[in-house]
Specification:
mainly alpha; Serine Threonine Protein Phosphatase 5, Tetratricopeptide repeat; 3 domains; 0% strand; disordered N terminus; Pre-mRNA-splicing factor CWC22; ARM-type_fold; spliceosome; mRNA splicing; Initiation_fac_eIF4g_MI
Length: 632
């Protein structure tokens, strides 16, 4: 039957018509058949068009085009921005991938590169602050100056405040570090003081004891290092004790324990007021027994002269007194904490600013090598200095060449500076021989006097110097007295510039108003030059601070002894001269007290008649003459 089936006509018809047999219908055979048909179609097409197409195995991938450096940078920047946005949204980014992208971005003018440098600066500053302690502060500070603290001053202040709040026992170390930075970069120290004051104000308003304690502790040690003025301590203590509560008194006691000895040494009047207030709180205020005991312990600490609470520990006393820069920040004043310095901002002049800081860093670290010296190095340097002094004693220059060179250096430094900050920074680098410090204020005033018109540029230089520390303040105050005594030697234009220079210093409280005690406004002790000087001085002060503030300053009870020369009380003639003078220059409002005093001044008694002598005739020669006529 099988043979019959194979040879049957049905199978032959299927083969003739091309129909597949039932056993050929599986998938594998159909796939092979389709492949054969495709190959046949390809061959027919090749024969028809007479063109050659390579087979699949003969094809090669085309070489991709070479990307330029700009295209690579653009791709890397775009990918980096994408990763940052993903990370800010909470997506995990592998650090290796992020570092690889960062390594590809090398265009310093791009926003992405500057953001990378900003993040690196933030990590570096934070790491150095977290590493500092009593033993390594001398090594950490030079590394800290190696970072761009001008650009990163906001980061520095935020990081050091956060670290101090987390570890209060290390507050003296952080304060010592801030004091060293403040000597070279005063803007950083001032910003730190301002932010701490704002932090204290916010904590006090919100009754946040932890914030108040950390802020007051940090400020106390900054005041001990004379980064902030003692007046700020007095304002804070009196605020805390004005309406005493258990927390406010406790904060005040802890604050006074840290700053008390320094306050007593520098501002005894403020310290006495604080002690009186604490005594009143102890006896009259309704406070807890625990707080009362704290006040009593504080009085015992005062009695022991703060022997366990020195202002500055010996190992942290790293700043010379003449290098200290004190900032005057009032508790109730308008304070700008510059929060924008905490975040990244694109800088179009990034490379120029980095190059400028490199020069500044070289100057700072060149002088800051003292922090890294060991005791042996210090001994050797002191011996070398002694040898140099001995050699200098052998030869004495009688031609004042050194003084002339010093004045020339100061002059060229001021004239080559673009702004007052640059001038002050450069002048602080000038090596002043011992005893020659008064030459600097004198030269600044001389340079100012030689200008055709007064330039506030010189006034701002004098103001910044006078506010640096007490040494420069006293030198500028002495300079005022010196120039007033010799003002008659100057022509009118130079006299005008000198008067306006000192008017700016007085208006900005850079020097004390007690310097006016050298002026004796009367006809005998003034000249035409000195009267012109006084006129320009007071008119400029009134223009800067306003007549109302000038009147209030003239009525200050503490300053009244210093104003007795301006508004005399000795005799009516001098009082009238002073009144007429100020009225003639448009300052009559300042003489109200003098007018009232003159009006109520007792009139001088008439002289008593002279006693008649026995030998003399009381009626004089005329009466004796008439008497002779009568007798005749």
């Amino acid at each position: 039957m099988a043979s019959a089936e194979v040879g049957s006509p049905r199978i032959e018809r299927r083969e003739r018509d091309g129909e597949p047999a039932p056993e050929e219908r599986d998938d594998g055979e159909r796939r092979h058949r389709r492949d054969d048909e495709r190959h046949r179609d390809r061959d027919r097409e090749r024969d028809r068009t007479d063109s050659y197409r390579p087979a699949r195995q003969e094809k090669r991938r085309p070489t991709p085009p070479v990307k330029t450096e700009e295209e690579k940078q653009a791709i890397a920047k775009a990918e980096y921005e994408k990763l940052l946005s993903m990370r800010s949204g909470g997506t995990y980014i592998p650090p290796a991938r992020l570092r690889a992208l960062q390594a590809q971005i090398t265009d310093k003018s791009s926003k992405e590169y500057q953001r990378l440098m900003w993040e690196a600066l933030k990590k570096s500053i934070n790491g150095l602050i977290n590493k500092v302690n009593y033993s390594n502060i001398k090594h950490i500070v030079p590394e800290l100056f190696g970072e761009n603290l001008i650009k990163g001053r906001g980061l520095f202040c935020r990081s050091i405040m956060k670290a101090q709040a987390a570890s209060l026992p290390f507050t003296p170390v952080f304060a010592a570090m801030a004091a060293i930075v403040n000597t070279k970069l005063p803007a950083v120290g001032e910003l730190l003081v301002k932010r701490l004051v704002i932090s204290f104000r916010k904590g006090f308003k919100r009754s946040d004891k932890a914030v108040c304690v950390s802020s007051t502790t940090f400020l106390a040690h900054l005041i001990n290092h004379q980064v902030a003025h003692e007046r700020l301590a007095g304002q804070m203590l009196l605020l805390l004790l004005h309406k005493p509560t258990d927390d406010s008194v406790e904060i005040a006691v802890n604050f006074m324990r840290e700053v008390g000895q320094h306050l007593q040494d520098m501002q005894p009047a403020i310290a006495l007021a604080v002690w009186d207030q604490l005594r009143n709180v102890l006896h009259e205020a309704d406070i807890d027994k625990r707080v009362q005991y704290m006040i009593e312990v504080l009085f015992q600490v005062r009695k022991d002269d703060f022997k366990d609470n020195p202002p500055i520990k010996e190992e942290l006393d790293l700043v010379e007194e003449e290098d200290q820069i004190t900032h005057m920040v009032d508790l109730d004043g308008d304070i700008d904490v510059q929060d924008g310095l905490n975040i990244f901002k694109y800088d179009p002049q990034w490379e120029e600013h980095e190059e400028a800081y490199k020069k500044l860093k070289a100057e700072i670290l060149g002088e800051g090598s003292d922090y890294e010296d060991d005791d042996d190095d210090e001994d050797e340097s002191s011996e070398e200095e002694e040898n140099e002094e001995e050699k200098a004693m052998e030869i004495k220059d009688q031609s004042n060449t050194d003084l002339v060179n010093l004045r020339r250096t100061i002059y060229l430094t001021v004239m080559s500076s673009i702004d007052p900050e640059e001038a002050v920074h450069k002048l602080l680098r000038v090596n002043l021989p011992p005893g020659q410090e008064p030459e600097l204020p004198s030269m600044i005033v001389e340079i100012c006097s030689q200008e055709k018109t007064f330039s506030k540029f010189h006034g701002l230089i004098g103001e910044r110097f006078a506010k640096l520390n007490r040494l420069w303040t006293s030198l500028f105050e002495d300079s005022f007295a010196d120039y007033y005594n010799k003002i008659h030697r100057y022509e009118t234009n130079r006299l005008r510039n000198v008067a306006r220079f000192f008017a700016h210093l007085l208006a900005t409280d850079a020097i004390g108003w007690h310097v006016l005690s050298v002026i004796h406004l009367n006809e005998e002790e003034t000249t035409s030059s000195s009267r012109i000087f006084i006129k320009i001085l007071f008119q400029d002060i009134a223009e800067e601070i306003g007549m109302a503030k000038l009147q209030a300053r003239m009525k200050d009870e503490i300053l009244q002894p210093s104003f007795l020369g301006l508004f005399p009380r000795d005799n009516a003639r001098n009082i009238r001269f002073s009144i007429n003078y100020f009225t003639s220059i448009g300052m009559g409002a300042l003489t109200e007290a003098s007018r009232e005093y003159l009006q109520n001044m007792p009139k001088p008694a008439l002289p008593a008649p002279a006693a008649a002598d026995s030998d003399s005739d009381p009626k004089g020669p005329e009466s004796s003459q008439s008497q002779r006529h009568t007798t005749s």
